[in-house]
Amino acid sequence: MQILTDKSQKEQKNHGTHAFPLLISKERLLAYESGAFFWHWHPEIEITIVTSGEMNYQVNNCHLHLKTGDVLFGNTATLHSGSMFGHSDCEYTVITFDAKLLYGYENSVLYHSYIKPVLQNYALPCLHFDGSSKWHHEAISQLMQILDTYENQQTAWEFDVLEHLLHFWKLLYTHTDSSIALSTADQRNYERIRNILSYIEANYASKMTLEDIADHVHLCKSECCRMFKRYMRQSLFDFILAYRIEKSLPYLGDNSYSIQAVSEKAGFLDSNYFSRVFKQLKGCSPTAFRKEILN
């Protein structure tokens, strides 16, 4: 399994319904082919509650180590990914919702005064609730009540979910500084990162050079690579290799594809090079990986 995205890396999954845009789902990292979910984004807010184990989580350029009991608030339209910590599984529950559930319509006082300042605070891509502040416990308590209400779904449960969600947001708003703003340059570079990911998604299976990517975002090659590494904390070249390896995994789960064919599907011209990179990143050969997932 892997998260389905479109060419801009926007997740295609529906998070709730138009009538009530909120979804709660129980997840685990080992449900994904590589024990990790790759970079994606969506306009909805995402709150991750770790119920068992630990995980590495990245939101934009924030790197976090989440442990059992930790909660992570992910703001709208942020790029995020997650992976195993110490090769162990991690179970977590995700609350995903459209912020309009809170404010109703864009001209409301709730939107302009309390919701918009958080949504458009680009300096707040995420917030880690680890119990280090007293108010964290109250915020987490509201989220746990949302989970309980959603699971039982007694009469008029939607009112109760909304009540606790509004309480959580009030705590979030009153304890974060909306005056801190991300620079215009940072905002522009995050948009460039998304465009780079979109380009890689569309072209990873074919010959693709760093110069091609730099031209796509109207930067010279050296500046493009510096910008990408600054925000993603990984070189653009290494990211492309890792991305192609991730894209090879579904084909390895299908015996009708030879290793040579899999390498070509993933954008590697040389199957031997594909095998070397695969072993470096996954700790085993493509053949061994195939045997493990098919058995």
Please give the CATH architecture of the largest domain. Sandwich
- The total of beta strands comes to 9
CATH topology of the largest domain: Jelly Rolls
Overall tally of domains? 2
What sort of overall outline do the alpha carbons produce when their principal axes are compared? globular
Catalogue the unreliable spans. Answer: none
Helix content: 40-55%
Strand content: 15-25%
Overall average pLDDT: 89
Structural class: alpha+beta
Going by CATH, the homologous superfamily of the largest domain would be Regulatory protein AraC
**Total of DSSP H or I helical runs spanning 4+ residues:** 11
Q: In order across it, which strands form the biggest sheet?
A: 1-8-3-6-9
N→C terminal distance:
16 Å
Elements, N to C (H/E)? EEEEEEEEHHEHHHHHHHHH
Whole-angstrom Rg: 21 Å
Biggest pleated-sheet summary: 5 strands, antiparallel
* The CATH top-level class label of the largest domain: Mainly Beta
Structure characterization notes:
With 295 residues, the protein is an alpha+beta fold. The chain folds into two domains: 22-174, Regulatory protein AraC (Jelly Rolls, Sandwich); 184-294, Homeodomain-like (Arc Repressor Mutant, subunit A). It is 46% helix and 17% strand. The strands form two sheets. The chain has a five-stranded antiparallel beta sheet with strand order 1-8-3-6-9, covered by helices on one side.
